[in-house]
Amino acid sequence: QVQLVESGGGLVQAGDSLRLSCAASGGTFSRYKMGWFRQAPGKEREFVAVTRWKSGITYYADYADSVKGRFTISRDNAGNTVLLQMNSLKPEDTAVYYCAAAPGGGLFRSETSYGYWGQGTQVTVSS
Question: Which of these ranges, 16-20, 58-62, 77-81, 121-125, has the smallest mean pLDDT?
């Protein structure tokens, strides 16, 4: 049974950094796409970043425009741990952040492409 467990959220000030971690178990994740989504109060869940298999141990990384240049997604070679390094945080980054996973390709920016989800971790950025 696939399980995703996020950690690393917290309360920080604008301009600070946080690193989120997603630990995956119950499967072989090296060729899975592993993404991060977030949901702010009163808003729909939105795509943040994804790491998806290219070939060998090479992965693509894609980002939402709102976080490009500030956030970095990475994963270990086995794909069991996915990190989201978040720098220069802004109050508008405040949300619950979810890790998501799915085998193969597909529309990686769409949450409907992911079958496995973590429970979420809260990130709050004060101004």
Answer: 77-81
